Amino acid sequence: MAATQEEIVKGLAEIVNEIAGIPVEDVKLDKSFTDDLDVDSLSMVEVVVAAEERFDVKIPDEDVKNLKTVGDASDYILKHQG
Amino acid sequence: MTSKIKPAQGAPYARIMGVGGYRPTRVVPNEEILKHIDSSDEWIRSRSGIATRHWAGPDETVAMMSVEAAGKAIADAGLTPEQIGAVIVSTVSHFKQTPAIATEIAHRIGAGKPAAFDISAGCAGFGYGLTLARGMVTDGSAEYVLVIGVERLSDLTDLEDRATAFLFGDGAGAVIVGPAKEPAIGPTVWGSEGDKSETIKQTLAWDVYRTTPVPGGDGPEERTAPEAVRYPAITQEGQAVFRWAVFEMAKVAQQALDAAGVSPDDLDVFIPHQANMRIIDSMVKTLKLPESVTVARDVETTGNTSAASIPLAMERLLATGQAKSGDTALVIGFGAGLVYAATVVTLP
């Protein structure tokens, strides 16, 4: 069953926590991965790959650069999840 | 008539018998890199784990560094240069298309008339060379093969590109592959992904500088480089390379372990291509290697030396006592092409 936006944000928060050590409660829709959450371009790749596995979605390299905020990522996953 | 032809016959197995390295004398700290780019020591270290690298001086040519590394490897193997039956050199930074640099190196080390040739397989070059050498020893083409990975990547570095200026280093690493009674080089898991050939590449082909008449053309002016043409350098798509290197190459590394019948718990040493500390750390995590495995982290003080990185890291691990002769090591190279090669070896 497809995940809801709430479930996606919760999942992303756990992933960001695991990869960058950011508290889960800091991961909110309007937060920028690089500016607010200390996720650099390489960690972002790890976040994307973890999200792909968790939500059964493909996020190609050329789309990764458009995922600036947690909201961008959750919208993308909501739209493309299998 | 079809005559009966004697088959080539070699040793039952092959092994790495000796290793040697050469690092240029000049050590270049991140501070020097910052002269040309807007960045910081902290940024470079956090993105790459690189603190210093060696850059070759005018006398430290591709041939000179190779000869130095080869001499050490031959001595380490307990051989003399005349015993070398073949020389394989992997490099992307020898700037003459022909002749191969391998022949000059073979001559300068005093190896007589061995088979000698260059290969181009980027950062997987060491694994490609090792695989060829194993085949040559076991089919009888040569008893002892000298495999060299050598680069002067400072010559192909754009010092004003903040994404790559800090990445590359120079040096040479060499091994001797010879006969063995027991298997000491496992099956190679290797391949190429040409659909990703643009991911890591030299920006321009050398013929952009052509000023002499072009075959079939009207005159010299056709291909003359515009003044604005930037000197060719190696560029890469950082995120795409990182994803491929960490997640796809971890699968290849696992396949090499499986092919050799070695479990992670039986592994002593992991020597991945020294591309970037972040790639190494993520690969170790993805592979779930036990903490008992020694991981090569030579990139911190050597930078990315492409085909030279694995033998250089191997030599340092052995020289510092972090690894010892007889240890079981997983080696994996991956890079421009894209190409990759992984295998399990017994350390010399």
Automatic annotation (TrEMBL), chain A:
<keyword id="KW-0597">Phosphoprotein</keyword>
<keyword id="KW-0443">Lipid metabolism</keyword>
<dbReference type="GO" id="GO:0000035">
    <property type="term" value="F:acyl binding"/>
</dbReference>
<dbReference type="InterPro" id="IPR036736">
    <property type="entry name" value="ACP-like_sf"/>
</dbReference>
<feature type="domain" description="Carrier">
    <location>
        <begin position="3"/>
        <end position="81"/>
    </location>
</feature>
<dbReference type="GO" id="GO:0016020">
    <property type="term" value="C:membrane"/>
</dbReference>
<feature type="modified residue" description="O-(pantetheine 4'-phosphoryl)serine">
    <location>
        <position position="41"/>
    </location>
</feature>
<dbReference type="GO" id="GO:0005829">
    <property type="term" value="C:cytosol"/>
</dbReference>
<comment type="pathway">
    <text>Lipid metabolism; fatty acid biosynthesis.</text>
</comment>
<dbReference type="InterPro" id="IPR003231">
    <property type="entry name" value="ACP"/>
</dbReference>
<feature type="domain" description="EAL">
    <location>
        <begin position="1"/>
        <end position="82"/>
    </location>
</feature>
<keyword id="KW-0276">Fatty acid metabolism</keyword>
<keyword id="KW-0444">Lipid biosynthesis</keyword>
<dbReference type="GO" id="GO:0009245">
    <property type="term" value="P:lipid A biosynthetic process"/>
</dbReference>
<protein>
    <recommendedName>
        <fullName>Acyl carrier protein</fullName>
    </recommendedName>
</protein>
<comment type="function">
    <text>Acyl carrier protein involved in meromycolate extension.</text>
</comment>
<comment type="similarity">
    <text>Belongs to the acyl carrier protein (ACP) family.</text>
</comment>
<dbReference type="InterPro" id="IPR009081">
    <property type="entry name" value="PP-bd_ACP"/>
</dbReference>
<dbReference type="GO" id="GO:0000036">
    <property type="term" value="F:acyl carrier activity"/>
</dbReference>
<keyword id="KW-0275">Fatty acid biosynthesis</keyword>
<keyword id="KW-0963">Cytoplasm</keyword>
<dbReference type="InterPro" id="IPR001633">
    <property type="entry name" value="EAL_dom"/>
</dbReference>
TrEMBL record, chain B:
<keyword id="KW-0276">Fatty acid metabolism</keyword>
<dbReference type="InterPro" id="IPR013751">
    <property type="entry name" value="ACP_syn_III_N"/>
</dbReference>
<feature type="region of interest" description="ACP-binding">
    <location>
        <begin position="274"/>
        <end position="278"/>
    </location>
</feature>
<keyword id="KW-0443">Lipid metabolism</keyword>
<dbReference type="Pfam" id="PF08545">
    <property type="entry name" value="ACP_syn_III"/>
</dbReference>
<keyword id="KW-0275">Fatty acid biosynthesis</keyword>
<keyword id="KW-0963">Cytoplasm</keyword>
<feature type="active site">
    <location>
        <position position="273"/>
    </location>
</feature>
<keyword id="KW-0444">Lipid biosynthesis</keyword>
<dbReference type="InterPro" id="IPR013747">
    <property type="entry name" value="ACP_syn_III_C"/>
</dbReference>
<dbReference type="GO" id="GO:0005737">
    <property type="term" value="C:cytoplasm"/>
</dbReference>
<comment type="pathway">
    <text>Lipid metabolism; fatty acid biosynthesis.</text>
</comment>
<dbReference type="InterPro" id="IPR016039">
    <property type="entry name" value="Thiolase-like"/>
</dbReference>
<feature type="active site">
    <location>
        <position position="304"/>
    </location>
</feature>
<keyword id="KW-0808">Transferase</keyword>
<comment type="similarity">
    <text>Belongs to the thiolase-like superfamily. FabH family.</text>
</comment>
<dbReference type="InterPro" id="IPR004655">
    <property type="entry name" value="FabH"/>
</dbReference>
<comment type="function">
    <text>Catalyzes the condensation reaction of fatty acid synthesis by the addition to an acyl acceptor of two carbons from malonyl-ACP. Catalyzes the first condensation reaction which initiates fatty acid synthesis and may therefore play a role in governing the total rate of fatty acid production. Possesses both acetoacetyl-ACP synthase and acetyl transacylase activities. Its substrate specificity determines the biosynthesis of branched-chain and/or straight-chain of fatty acids.</text>
</comment>
<keyword id="KW-0012">Acyltransferase</keyword>
<comment type="subunit">
    <text>Homodimer.</text>
</comment>
<keyword id="KW-0511">Multifunctional enzyme</keyword>
<feature type="active site">
    <location>
        <position position="123"/>
    </location>
</feature>
